[in-house]
Design goal:
The complex is a heterotrimer of chains A (488), B (94) and C (483). Chain A is an alpha/beta fold and 488 residues long. Helices cover 38% and strands 13% of the residues of chain A. Chain A has helices at 8-16, 22-40, 48-64, 105-112, 155-162, 179-184, 219-229, 273-289, 304-319, 338-349, 352-365, 371-392, 417-421, 428-433, 461-474; strands at residues 43-46, 74-78, 116-121, 168-173, 188-191, 211-216, 259-263, 292-296, 397-401, 437-445, 448-456. Chain A starts with 7 loop residues before the first helix and ends in a 14-residue tail after the last helix. Chain B is an alpha+beta fold and 94 residues long. Chain B has a two-stranded antiparallel ribbon with strand order 2-3. In chain B, a hairpin with a 2-residue loop joins strand 2 (82-83) and strand 3 (86-90). Chain C is of the alpha+beta class and 483 residues long. In chain C, the strands form 4 sheets. In chain C, strands 1, 3, 7, 8, 9, 12, 13, 14, 15 and 16 form a 10-stranded mixed sheet that branches. A 3-stranded antiparallel sheet of chain C has the order 6-5-17, with no helix packed on it. In chain C, helix 3 (163-179) packs antiparallel against helix 4 (220-239), helix 10 packs antiparallel against helix 11 and helix 14 (433-440) packs antiparallel against helix 15. Chain C is elongated, with a radius of gyration of 30 Å. Classes of the chains: A alpha/beta (488), B alpha+beta (94), C alpha+beta (483). The A-C interface holds A 81-82, 88, 90, 95, 98, 100-102, 104, 199-204, 206-208, 234-238, 314-315, 318, 321-324, 326-329, 338, 342, 362, 365-367, 370, 374 and C 39, 42-51, 78, 80, 82, 84, 87-90, 142, 263, 269, 271-273, 276-279. Strand 3 (86-90) of chain B pairs antiparallel with strand 11 of chain C.
Chain lengths: 488, 94, 483
């Protein structure tokens, strides 16, 4: 059998021309996972039997002509999306025993498209983190280095795609959790406009910031997966009413005259020299394609991290109150009374970072502090949103690095929460404003991937994906694979 | 600087057991985080309206119809403690 | 020192929707535990709320009915606390921007006087589940069927100064929400619950004393007793130099006392913030206008109209307007019969009696208003006497036949022909010479005996008025009669 394509587009085309079957592809990925994932720990749950059954159904549909574009294409699903009958853990001991009794809207859409779920991927516990080091199931390793993190919170999904343990994956992004791991793992990842993808069944971290998005090797793959994931959902009150596009049909956008903004705050002296070099080269490529770069000022950008941490912690402290040992999830042994049931179940079920965020959030909302923290953060949120709107009056897209560093060593930032929070410096403002943004591979520094970030205006996913597609047509960073991926 | 007692009071509100050993670390981390957050005070926001939903649309509405079926068995499968369809907790005295 | 009580009431009215406020589970009462608790109601990981459109209309209708301001923008907020009947660990409620602000309710006190009570606000929120303590050993059972049922929380200003006033207010509110069709007011089922905030202060002062909150009173009687007990308790405490502890209390009907609620000693910090899963409710002027068109005539206005138009006394009017079905029934009966006095008597008398005996409501009465009105018309036109009419009514109730059908079938027409009546009278007089003697000797009461005998021999059909007149004629004035 010829070696299989490693992109969604390639696999879809091959399935359509009957070069191979969905069972062939699925089995190939399952074999690779079995051989390699012990090293990287990208999956929490591998659904081998279920996946093969889905693959068989897909093959039947392909044979009788009832298949869609994505039928039979495998994917990895971040373990934050509820999947009926399958363990859904959010990488937490609190949900270690939780088999979801219903499926998220996104999960249902993927199933309806005939896609094949290889398994549920590892992540930072309850999506809180930037390194995948807070997972109850152990750290995920970045296949590009030795003992370096993949980023987070969608670290498992990013590393799985990078290690070719899935052609694409779902992720969620609250402060950068799709884009930053995509950058650190040398793949592409998109956070859509807030409300573009349904949050029903996507276990909540910070309700006004969370957004699910596609992760894959190319802009085209992101578009194909976004087509499946996106759409209005009446079960989610914050879901966007606006109709979706066919994101894969308009990738060849004209670049002549495309105005791309360069916020000076993204390019100050603190930017790592190696990353700055990659950014310069990428800028050169865009300019050769016809784009024009314009300097921008986003004056309140540095306030985005503290505002983000207040809002996300406050919202999560409330969202996580339902984990109380009463109806599902972890319950402590022999609770003496109700208080003991709550306090001990939650103390045992949650990891340290999760507890920190709950404490910060509880504090920020508590009596006497609401105005100084939560309300203040929402005011800053408006200022940041306004800064972006001003910028988009003069540019089509905004450009910059995704992460201030390349993949760092496991354990290096884990003990200092604030230093970990600073990893999100380029990404959190986007979530506060609800804008769409993606990260795409843009080079390497000392063998570790670097990502460029493009930010678009509301519902401009086509522009983002198109510009990235054009960039990827003239560069080959996205085609690189980690050097030592052969099984031991 | 957050004291151990304050940490415990916040933990109480959040129904999280924090042992006396763990309290100092949490207190230190919380203090650092709150100092960091205090950067927000660098800007004057008195005249600014808080932004709750970035795209600011109005509430979508649902027609008043009872559509859900009884799925008690599915939902209680895996529940920590149930009896006759009730979820059980240690006795609560009003 | 003389103390006066100050009372404010918070009423929780369950809105009569088919589905819950944020999910499509049923709100029907009495289902087996947790069979009407869907994923959203259970607060499972990942679920989200979607607002039921009917609750907005119901809240707006209430707001307009009490002359309050219906907010053009209102916001849902999370009220965070831990309790097993609260699955998410927060209740979706409203805090800073409630859907209704202000308003007033006129209440009728037992002495007939009226008083206006100001409302602070009314807001939408979801109900919690229920705890079951019996037969579970050392466990408590949680039933979440009720979780997510829509509530309208109606808050009054502290403007009631006795338990009596508080009960009058509660009654007026109970009638109003049922009139509006937004709540069925079934207190046994918990559709209408009341929390009472009670404090005392030296008479003549204006500052409010420390208050206690008595929760979950679900009958008028309990509200009255609980408040009276609490007033006495607080008065004793402050009179004895003590201080009132601000706390939540429960009323114990078995011992007729209030006591502190255990397990709620924590000063609650609810950490309210706008719910990020829900968007603000926007209400347009045209929506408000549409709702205003749907406002029915309200109880107070109807009461006044009944008094003026139908010449009813205040007490009768009040009884008839207690619920819309009764009021409508009464008016339809008047329309059919042409006699408001008669209609009022029969509705509050025979009809209510029959409804009670049968255990049904006005809407289910087998004798509907037009049918009763016809019967009353037959009294008016003297086809039957009032007494016979009661018999006819019972037959109508049991058989569903009309008054005329029964009167004809059973030959119950009143005898009005003078010569016929005279025959009966003459017969009775000739049969009872002894009583005639007694009557003429001054025993007035014997007159009633003659009337009775005539009615008996005519099988109740003789027109009583003519019987009286003829007897008087034939007997003449008795000695000592003051007639």
């Amino acid at each position: 059998m010829p070696s299989l394509p490693d992109t969604v587009a390639g696999i879809a085309a091959g399935l359509a021309s009957r070069d191979f079957s969905s069972v062939d592809v699925t089995q190939a990925y399952l074999d690779r996972i079995a051989a390699l994932d012990g090293r990287y720990n990208t999956y929490i749950t591998v659904c081998a039997d279920r996946a093969l059954a889905q693959a068989q159904s897909a093959d039947t549909a392909i044979a009788d002509g009832s298949a869609g574009v994505m039928t039979g294409v495998p994917y990895a699903h971040k373990d934050i999306f509820c999947t009926a009958g399958v363990k859904t853990s959010c990488a937490s001991r609190m949900l270690d025993n939780f088999e979801a009794p219903y499926s998220a809207t996104v999960s249902e859409r993927l199933d309806a498209a005939g896609m094949v779920m290889l398994g549920k991927t590892n992540m930072d516990e309850f999506a809180m983190g930037s390194s995948n080091e807070t997972s109850y199931y152990g750290v995920t390793l970045n296949p590009w280095g030795t003992n370096v993190v993949p980023g987070g919170s969608s670290g498992g999904s990013a590393a799985a795609v990078a290690a070719q343990l899935a052609p694409c994956a779902t992720g969620t992004d609250t402060g950068g959790s799709v884009r930053q791991p995509a950058a650190l793992c040398g793949i592409s990842g998109l956070k859509p406009t807030y409300g573009r993808v349904s949050r029903y069944g996507m276990i909540a971290f910070a309700s006004s910031l969370d957004q699910g998005g596609p992760m894959g090797r190319t802009a085209e793959d992101l578009a194909l997966l976004l087509n499946v994931m996106a759409g209005h959902d009446p079960r989610d009150s914050t879901s966007a009413q606006r109709p979706t596009e066919n994101y894969a049909a308009q990738l060849e956008i004209p670049m002549e005259g495309l105005r791309i903004g360069l916020p000076k705050q993204f390019f100050d002296q603190q930017l790592d020299a190696g990353i700055a070099t990659c950014m310069d080269e990428a800028r050169g490529e865009f300019e050769r394609l016809g784009a024009q770069f314009v300097e921008l000022d986003l004056p309140r950008l540095d306030l985005s991290i503290p505002a983000y941490y207040v809002i996300s912690s406050a919202e999560c402290s409330s969202n996580l109150s339902r984990y109380d040992g009463v109806r599902f999830g972890h319950r402590c042994n022999d609770p003496e009374n109700l208080d003991d049931l709550y306090c001990r179940s939650r103390a045992e079920g949650f990891g340290t970072e999760t507890k920190r965020r709950i404490l910060v959030g509880t504090y920020a909302l508590s009596s006497g502090y609401y105005d100084a923290y939560y309300r203040k953060a929402q005011q800053i949120r408006r200022l940041i949103r306004d800064d972006f709107q001003t910028a988009f009056a003069s540019v089509d897209l905004i450009f910059g690095p995704t992460s201030p560093t390349t993949a760092f060593e496991v354990g290096k930032k884990a003990t200092d929460p604030v230093s970990m929070y600073l990893s999100d410096i380029y990404t959190t403002a986007v979530n506060l404003a609800g804008l769409p943004a993606l990260s795409a591979p843009a080079g390497f520094v000392e063998g570790l991937p670097v990502g460029l970030q493009l930010i678009g205006n509301y519902f401009d996913e086509e522009k983002l994906l198109g510009a990235t597609h054009r960039f990827q047509s003239v560069t080959s960073w996205h085609e690189q694979t980690p050097p030592d991926l052969t099984p031991e | 600087m957050i004291s151990n007692d304050e940490v415990k009071a916040i933990a109480r509100l959040a129904r999280l057991d924090i042992s006396d050993d763990a309290a100092p670390d949490f207190a230190r981390d919380l203090s650092r985080i709150l100092d960091f957050i205090a950067q927000m005070n660098a800007v004057d926001t008195d005249a600014v309206e808080p932004l709750a939903h970035p795209l600011e649309p109005d509430a979508p509405l649902r027609a008043d119809e009872a559509l859900e079926n009884n799925q008690r068995e599915t939902f209680q499968n895996g529940a920590p403690a149930t009896e006759n369809g009730l979820y059980l907790v240690p006795k609560v005295i009003d | 020192m003389d103390y006066e009580p100050v009372i404010g009431l918070e009423i929780h009215a369950q809105l009569a929707t088919a589905s819950k406020i944020f999910s499509a589970a049923s709100t029907a009462y009495g289902a087996a535990p947790n069979t009407q608790a869907c994923a959203v109601d259970l607060g499972l990981p990942g679920v989200l709320p979607v607002l039921n459109e009917r609750v907005i209309e119901m809240a707006a209708l209430f707001g307009l009915a009490v002359g309050a301001e219906v907010a053009r923008d209102s916001v849902f907020a999370r009220k965070n606390y831990f309790y097993p009947d609260l699955p998410k660990g927060y209740q979706i409620s409203q805090y800073e921007q409630p859907i209704v602000a202000g308003g007033q309710l006129e209440i009728l006190l037992p002495d007939g006087s009226a008083k206006v009570i100001d409302l602070t606000r009314a807001h939408l929120e979801e109900d919690a589940g229920k705890s079951v303590h019996e037969n579970l050993g050392d466990a408590t059972g949680i039933d979440l069927n009720r979780a997510g049922t829509p509530l309208l929380e109606i808050v009054s200003e502290p403007q009631m100064f006795s338990a009596t006033e508080a009960v009058s207010y509660m009654r007026a509110m109970h009638t109003l929400v049922r009139y509006l069709g937004i709540c069925d007011g079934n207190m046994q089922e918990g559709s209408f619950r009341c929390d009472a905030n009670v404090s005392v202060r030296p008479r003549g002062t204006t500052a409010l004393g420390t208050r206690t909150e008595i929760k979950n009173l679900n009958s008028f009687r309990f509200v009255e007793r609980a408040i009276e007990f609490e007033i006495e308790r607080q008065t004793d405490v402050v009179d004895g130099g003590g201080e009132i502890v601000q706390e939540t209390r429960l009323y114990d009907p078995d011992n007729d006392e209030t006591r502190p609620m255990r397990g709620k000693e924590d000063a609650h910090d609810y950490r309210y913030f706008p719910d990020p899963d829900l968007l603000p409710i926007a209400i347009s002027q045209s929506f408000i206008d549409e709702v205003a068109d749907k406002l029915p005539e309200l109880p107070a206005a109807k009461r006044t109209r009944f008094i003026n138009t139908f010449n009813l006394g205040a007490s009768d009017a009040d009884t008839l307007v207690q619920d819309r079905d009764t009021a409508d029934y009464f008016e339809a009966t008047v329309a059919e019969s042409g006699d408001a006095r008669l209609a009022a008597n029969w509705v509050t008398g025979e009809l209510f009696g029959a409804l009670n005996r049968t255990g049904i409501g006005v809407a289910e009465a087998p004798v509907q208003a037009p049918a009763l009105g016809q019967l009353l018309a037959r009294i008016r036109d003297e086809t039957v006497s009032g007494k016979i009419a009661k018999q006819v009514f019972e037959s109508m109730w049991a058989s569903g036949r009309s008054a005329d059908e029964i009167i004809d079938a059973e030959g119950l027409r009143q005898v009005t022909d003078d010569s016929e009546i005279e025959q009966f009278v003459d017969q009775v007089l000739s049969d009872n010479p002894g009583q005639i003697e007694q009557y003429r000797a001054g025993k007035d009461k014997v007159f009633g005996f003659f009337v009775g005998q005539v009615m008996k021999s005519s099988k109740g059909k003789a027109n009583p008025k003519r019987v009286n007149e003829l007897l008087k004629q034939k007997l003449g004035a008795s000695e000592g009669s003051a007639e």
